[in-house]
Amino acid sequence: MTDSETSPPRPLEIHGTLQLESAAVEARLRKIEEKLEERNGKGALTWILDVLKTLLPSIVLAILGFALKDTVDQALREREIQLAAVKEMETLVPDLQKTDLVRADAQAKAAQLAAFGRYSVPFFVNILEVGNQNAGVGAEDGLRMVARSEPQVVCSALQIVIKNRTGLFRWQTHLSALEILGQASCTKACRDVASFRDTMSSVNNYQKWVPSPPMQTEYDKVAKQASDTFEQLNRVAPGDCK
Amino acid sequence: MFQNAVHSANWIRNAIAAAALTCGVAHAQLTNCKDPGPPDVFKIFVDEVRATGGSTGSARVREKVQGIHKFLSENLKASSGDNASVRDCGKRFPSDSADFDNKEFDGLDNLRVVLEVWGMLDDPVKGSGSLGFALVPARPIAPPAVYVVPSANLLNSLRQGKQMSAFAPLVLGIRQYQNKNYADAVPLLCAGTQQLNSVLTGQSALGDDAFRTRQRELMKKVKEITDSAIREARRTPGSPFGLWNPTSDGTFLCPD
């Protein structure tokens, strides 16, 4: 028999001291609390962000809608006015084209059309292109009349005329456009006028720009007008012509 | 509200139109040509022939007026040949020579009209009256290039094919010269000069003194153009004008 089997059990005595360090525990607890708070904070932020993500398009749309409402309303209203103006002009345009119209009457009809302002400009350009002799004079006067109150509209429309090189406009329309561009002080068209003057170069070349080939005298007339218009615009705003 | 805006705009437009009409009344009274023809060819516009005085409505006067118009058109067709298209302009008629201002000439020039003719029958019984001519290409060289030729008997003058056959080749020649087609210009200028000289001289000379004086001024300019055209045409190798000899003063004489 061994001792262990025979000897009675001995009580185990542990000697030591249990020291509770309150500061360290508090620090650890604070860290844990901070971590927890941090986690709680992040969660709220995430939640708020999620909500915002969902709502953002609607908010942006609402803001844009609010901001654009007036613009859209204005555009719609302008469109309505334009349609009404076109309807009224439809009756005046054929009157301007009548064969038995004397020049004074054509000018009066054109003045009536010009009262529609910017909306009359495409009509006038078209009359320059297809109209009869007195209607053409009226259309030129009408464009001058509109140019006195809304020069930009007339200038832009006539710039398109002189920039075209593909036979959309007759040489007569180029001539009228150049003349009015100068009279209306369309300084922004200065470079286009200079380009027109410099690139038309000869009657043979210019014939490719227009539907019906011009003769020498007609080419000379357009070339002279291009030079005169450039001079006019250069006098008004030399800076724009460089 | 939109309706109100449109109505108020109409008011303004009507007021502007009324003002424009009032301002425009005193200006030129030429209507558009009823049949201006194709854009690519030279044209001669024949306006209305009108009878003045009290008997304008009678059938006899109307017949006479129509006769003059017919002769005018036929003479012009004969004298211009294939070089120009003669167009009947219906009721177009100038109230005064001054209707042919710069704007009118520009408009005609842009339509390639070289000559416009109109007639006035003052005395239907005697047949006296006048013929008006607007020579479009001559405007830059002899302004205003509008001539009214009085005639004791319009119909007789036209039957003889007088001034009609002079002005048509003359203006076509001037236009060809301006277009630098010198070889085409010379025969037309020569023909026009000779015909016009023949009606300006002699006992049966057309028109009055004032008309003839102005015509001589025009002829002086045309002579300069003709010489210049011959000189330019002679530069082309093989040109028939190379055979023409200049006179002692360096000018040329058109062959008969």
Q: How would you summarize this macromolecular structure in one to three sentences?
A:
The complex is a heterodimer of chains A (242) and B (256). Chain A is mainly alpha-helical.
Task: Please explain how this structure is put together.
The complex is a heterodimer of chains A (242) and B (256). Chain A is mainly alpha-helical and 242 residues long. In chain A, helix 4 packs antiparallel against helix 5, helix 5 packs across helix 6 and helix 8 runs antiparallel to helix 10. The termini of chain A are far apart. The model of chain A has no long low-confidence stretch (mean pLDDT 89). Chain B is an alpha/beta fold. Chain B has one domain. Chain B is 48% helix and 15% strand. A five-stranded mixed beta sheet of chain B has the order 2-1-3-4-5. About 3% of the residues of chain B have low confidence. Classes of the chains: A mainly alpha (242), B alpha/beta (256).
Topology:
The complex is a heterodimer of chains A (242) and B (256).
Chain A: H1 3-6, H2 22-96, H3 103-114, H4 121-130, H5 133-149, H6 151-163, H7 171-183, H8 190-200, H9 203-206, H10 216-236
Chain B: H1 2-24, E1 43-51, H2 59-80, E2 85-88, H3 102-110, E3 113-123, E4 128-135, E5 146-151, H4 154-159, H5 162-178, H6 182-200, H7 209-234
Parallel strand pairs in B: 1-2, 1-3
Antiparallel strand pairs in B: 3-4, 4-5
Helix pairs in contact in B: 2-5, 5-6, 6-7
